[in-house]
Sequence to fold (751 residues):
Amino acid sequence: MNDLSLDPSVRVMKPDKGGGIVLFDATAYSASIYNILHESGNYEISSLNELNIAYRKIEMCLEEYLLHHRITRDLFDFMKVDNPVLATIVGIPKVHKDHLNPPLRPIISGSKSKTFPLGVVIDHTLKFIYNKLSHMVKDSWEFLRNFPVNIQQDQLIFCSIDVVDLFSCIPWEEGLEAFSSSLRKYSELSWDKISLLVDLMSIVIENNFIFFEGEIFKQARGVAMGAACAPMFANLVMLDWEEKCVFNSTFYHHIAYYSRYLDDIYILWKGSTELFDSFMSHLNDSSNYLKFTATKNNTGWHILIRISLENVDNEDATVNRIALWMCTFTLAVSVGAVLLLPFSIVSNEILLSVPQNYYIQWLNCSLIHGMWNLVFLCSNVSLVFLMPFAYFFTESEGFAGSRKGIMARVYETFVMLLLLTLLVLGIVWVASAIIDSTASKESLYDLWEFYLPYLYSCISLFGVLLLLLCTPFGLSRMFTVTGKLLVKPRLLENLEEQLNCTHFEEAALCRKLNGHTSCWLNFSLETLKRRFLAIQARRIALEMRQRASPLQRNLGYPLAMLLLLILTGISVLVVCFHVLELLIDEAAMPKLRRDPILGKTSFSKLGSLGAVMQIVLIFYLMVSSVVGFYSSPFFVKLLPKKRNTTMTKIIGNCVSLLVLSSALPVFSRTLGITSFDLLGDFGRFNWLGNFYIVFLYNMLFAILTTLCLVKKFTRAVQAELIRAFGLDKLPLPVSRVSCSIKLNPANGKLQ
Fold:
């Protein structure tokens, strides 16, 4: 095969559909491409002069669009190509039609051509149309998932209809008219936006130049298969045809199921074969440029589709089930890491209260140490193996050419994990060599005793730094989140009047959405939906306020805010006291303390009350860190949504929660929230013995938390007082200068 690939008289190619390799004679291939360009009628010979004129027209059009503010400067810079390269034509053999003398499918390769960025803009702008039309499928897997396998199969004929040369058969004028008509029907874009897209589409299809064997050709009909916007253009043309000739035809009630992927139509026909032949005649007579061929299958089709669907569903379900098991285990480890310190503190207080009780003899130091080591081990396993395996397992499809199935995915996942392990270990070795070259040389083969603890130490440091950023922000956000869950007091408020106004607004918007409005008014459907959802949410909030008792409405919110303020203040005071402790006593360092002996002394100077306060603060800081994590602009997109969370996002959430919860014991001990020592491998982190890191960490936490609270309360308290007294509803004075309106005579727009 290598010798054949180097032979200039043979072309080694991939087929149009399916797998395999096609060996094509180079001379026959060139002759086939020559026939496509000269005899198909879709291309015509052009010249360099015509090419330069077309390029100049494209540049003038883009400059005109920019001058009239139809496009932005960024869009203009993206679509303008200063040094274009002529597209080339490539023929893909269609061996499924004739394996001895296969016809070629012409593909235009022109990613650096003059019109390629315009096609990218069109395709990107209109991607949403695929999500709005249920009968358009994206691939064979979506077709199998959406296929109605439970439909009554008696007397149904499965038919596949193919459009002959769809991309190259569409005349420009009729195609652009159908393109514009579909955009007006199936999109909510403005008329100006639709007009711009039609103009850009016209530029793309009318200026497709091709270079082949020293000659320049121009496409005279259809759209280039290979242009970024070609599938979108063909789909919208077919949508316009379907609306006129299929969905509104007299044959439509004979169609039990209808779906389409570009030029392939799949239907379940309920009727006789003679009636289907009449339907095909109707389709071929419905358009002067669209021609159709069909194949029918009366028996066995439902068994084949059901088997294919079961294989796809079973495989995906098994993969997702395994990934969910791993995510569940990871979340359980996260909960265990959060409960480490509280359980240890409670165990110590119980042993102090009843030291000789027979029924609590199982509660000893060995149990607590084992629990800490077990959580440490499970955290390592989840972070290093389970979560990467779950991610690669859900994304894998098996190696190219291998038999599809679960084991193919497992093999690919293990190979990816092996490569990832080598990459991570290499990065860890380089990092350790930079810090201490002698230790890295001695521990080059010491995986268990050096690399894994060092790697987890880095992950723990990252988690502690993440907590440092998220927790102060979360402490300030806790007031906002709690305020949304509780009913806020309003001193001057008429709930009945506001509810009536909201009901009227909701009814008016519902009427507009249902189409009961004047035909002369043009409303954006998307804008109306957003307004309707906002009014609906406001009505629900007002009804919740109306149902709340006076005690809950006037006392619950202030008490909750006061409790949050007290907990936050205590946290800051404890950290400030710990800063002073670090300056005075070296024993305050997390790593320099000896392992505690349970049941001998309390870990709080206030006894059991102080231990309870430590547990409350640990849980409060954990909740605040999670709130701050999901409220930060960097991770807000990771927030899971009900019934709309992908498996990749679930895995990302599990990893994030595990990193935060695993760092919580180190975080709490570093800040001095508790004096309970870090047991097991949690206390082996090298950076815990660095005074400057620990001292700077405490100072940053105190400063960031104070700044967040000051900023929060200076704005929030003022806004709450204004809303509570109803001052936000008072009319504000308006100056004449700020409301001056000018009319620009050049374009007739208001300024």
Notes: The first helix runs from residue 2 to 6.
